[in-house]
Amino acid sequence: MRIAFFGGTFDPPHCGHLKIAEAAAARLHLDRVLFAPVGQQPLKHDGPTAHFADRVAMVRLAIAPYPAFGLSTLDAPRPDGKPNYTIDTLLRLKASLSADDEMFCLVGADSFLTLQHWYRAVEILFVCNFIVAGRPGTHLDEISTALPAGITLSGPPEISSEVVRFHLQNTRAQHSVLYLLPDLHEDISATRIRTALAEGEQAGQVLPSSVADYIHQHGLY
Ligand code: ATP
Question: Does residue 138's CB lie within 6 angstroms of at least one atom of ligand 1?
Fold first, then answer.
């Protein structure tokens, strides 16, 4: 199986998340995309506004129409109250897969551009292959400059209109592939949705209706 881990705050999950997961699944022939709401994202100091249980419930509703999408609670809040580090979660997921499975980690370009600040950033790209989805406001030519020191390209990128493949290597001669989906341009963000809802506006077409109903019924945001 080809399985992608897709972590996020999902506060709330929106159509941008679904669109990039659909594009990644189609272009990289993924059998499964695991949406994993995070307990506490290490780089988001304000923390989520909706409780983990609500974010899990909303993700479950959002992905229900998509047979290839699944929910993972692997990134649930830690009992010790510490942030959830992506590398720990990826290593746990990898340990639970079989040797035939191929694992990927799906992230948006804005998130990938902060990679140098991630915990054990140099190692994380070699735990599995990464898929980076383009996002408005991010410059994709910065992708290779976002790589932590010690990681280099082992050849020229292979470019097609749908996927750009960067072959990476580190100082221990380990290899990995970073797949960039350059043309994705979903101008949707959870922050903007929360702000709109807090001001009494409708979120409109950017939320699955099941998620919009859940938010309304539970008085979130
Ligand atoms: P917030 O506005 O609260 O920061 P968000 O909309 O970025 O939220 P997250 O749940 O934090 O949503 O995102 C989870 C992952 O999905 C991240 O890797 C993020 O980069 C990616 N992502 C979210 N929205 C988009 C989008 N519109 N296009 C591309 N990637 C996205």
Answer: no
Using a 6 Å cutoff on CB, does residue 4 contact ligand 1?
A: no
Spacing, Cα 99 to ligand 1 middle (Å) = 30
Give me the pLDDT at residue 67, please. Answer: 98
pTM: 0.97
Pocket test residue of 55, 110, 194 for ligand 1, highest count of atoms within 8 A of CB: 110
CA pair distance 121, 40, nearest whole angstrom = 18
Q: At 131, phi and psi to the nearest 5? A: -120, 125
Look up residue 136 and give its two tokens: 């408005």
The domain of 152 spans 2-187
pLDDT the model gives residue 145: 86
- Residue 51: per-residue pLDDT: 96
The predicted pLDDT at position 43 comes to 86
Mutate to test the pocket of ligand 1, among 44, 111, 184 (most ligand atoms within 8 A of CB): 111
**CATH code where residue 181 lies:** 3.40.50.620
Residues lower than pLDDT 50 in the chain: none
Residue 200 lies in a domain: no
**Ligand 1 atom closest to Cα of residue 106:** 18
Question: Is 13 near ligand 1, meaning CB less than 6 Å away?
Answer: no
How many domains in the chain?
1
Question: What pLDDT does 144 receive?
Answer: 81
**Gap between the terminal Cα atoms of the chain:** 37
3-state SS class at 34: strand
As a whole number of angstroms, the distance between CA 63 and CA 34 comes to 10
